[in-house]
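Suppose you are handed a protein chain with no further information: no name, no annotation, nothing but its sequence. What can you learn? This example shows the usual starting point.
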Amino acid sequence: MSAKKTKFGKFLAAAIEEAQIGLQEGGLPIGSVLVHDGNILGRGHNKRIQNGSTILHGEMDAMENAGRLSASVYKRCTLYTTLSPCVMCSGTILLYGIPFIVIAENVNFMGEEDLLKSRGVKLEVLQDAKCIEMMKIFIEENAKLWQEDIGK
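A reasonable first move is to predict its three-dimensional structure. Written in structure tokens, the prediction is:
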């Protein structure tokens, strides 16, 4: 395991676990955790299929599950996500001032990373082989659901 993956291992593992739960539930394998001072405040996974939701991407679910927080807390959080954040999730990250995002992979989908960086958000992209493969297989086997999820 690389030094970067070791550094982020515990929280990346939690995000991957969420992605696997989503897949087991019949949804998209995208998971996320919101971390503050070394503690997970919220964890979640994409629930668009399971809940018939238009907005419950992994990042949105993790933030929802963290509950209402003050701006000062968000400004000291790190968001871990198994896939590069889309425009909706990136907008939420910017709205609440989350300063650091750890992205497991952006091979299968390049989200709004340039937007986030342009607004001062620090990104760490790990290119985790497990996440790349999990998402690749899902997209190949569920092209219609994937296209729906990214708004195509």
